[in-house]
Specification:
Blueprint: H1 4-19, H2 25-32, H3 36-48, E1 52-55, E2 60-63, H4 66-76, H5 79-95, E3 98-105, E4 108-115, E5 130-132, H6 137-144, H7 148-157, H8 171-184, E6 187-190, E7 197-206, E8 209-218, H9 219-242
Antiparallel strand pairs: 1-2, 3-4, 3-8, 4-5, 6-7, 7-8
Length: 244
């Protein structure tokens, strides 16, 4: 269930992130596809809390840094991300590829943190991005961590959306792929979600919860280094679960 006011508040900040410039009330209402009167009420609430301000020269609006400050304070004290960040930074540096840390939300995985590669050609991802379970390496890693009965029940009801010509849309093919991946200890995606993207992933268990770690990059680099990256990933998995 979506709470409309909460969704519109998030949509407002995302509208400013897209435009990267001040917006008048009417421009903002149009971007949010909502009546000007409703947009005005939302803006006044955020303005009273110090999250947006009026740019007098244009009679337009723009977010203050309050949201950034609040986000920084939250992020700096996240017990899980604080624990894994050093491991994931080292993994990024060792592989030269983008590292994503995620968890499962229903039939999707959602990125909780991203450590981008410094290569000019790289996989670009953002915190909050959602990916299908069946077509991403880390999604398959979450599937592989399930008990057999639970896995078969979930796969039997999942919609296996085709994203590329390589996407596994057969339930048998997906289950076979997961079975093979379980034996070797890691999961991969080669062109299954994006034509020129490859990835390798595992899950880690912390505090009774399961999280995903994936390495992703352009196929021409990933295919040549898939097993080497998988070995580094497994070492990172072991180090995180061992707590050192």
């Amino acid at each position: 269930m979506t709470v409309k006011t909460a969704a519109r508040t998030l949509d407002l900040f995302e509208a400013f992130a897209r435009t990267q410039e001040p917006l008048t009330l009417s421009e903002l209402a149009s971007a949010l596809n909502m009546p000007v009167s409703s947009c005005f009420a939302l803006v006044r609430t955020l303005e009273s809390r110090g999250y947006v301000y009026m740019v007098a020269a244009r009679k337009s609006l723009y977010p203050t840094k309050r949201l950034l400050d609040v986000a920084h304070r939250i992020a700096e004290n996240d017990p899980i991300l604080e624990r894994v960040a050093p491991f994931l930074e080292r993994l990024r540096d060792a592989t030269g590829e983008t590292i994503a840390f995620s968890n499962r939300r229903g039939d999707h995985i959602v990125y909780l943190d991203v450590f981008e590669s410094s290569n000019s050609v790289r996989y670009h991802a953002q915190v909050g991005d959602a990916k299908f379970l069946h077509s991403s390496s880390v999604g398959k890693a979450f599937l592989g961590a399930m008990a057999d009965d639970d896995l078969r029940k979930l796969v039997s009801r999942m919609k296996l959306t085709r994203l590329t010509s390589a996407t596994l849309t057969s339930r048998k093919a997906l289950l076979d792929d997961i079975a093979r991946s379980r034996k070797r200890g890691w999961y991969c995606n080669v062109k299954e979600s994006v034509e020129d993207l490859g990835g390798v992933a595992v899950t880690v268990s912390m505090g009774g919860e399961r999280y995903g770690i994936s390495i992703a990059g352009p196929v021409y680099r990933m295919q040549a280094n898939l097993e080497a990256h998988a070995k580094k990933l497994l070492k990172t998995q072991q180090a995180i679960e061992a707590g050192h």
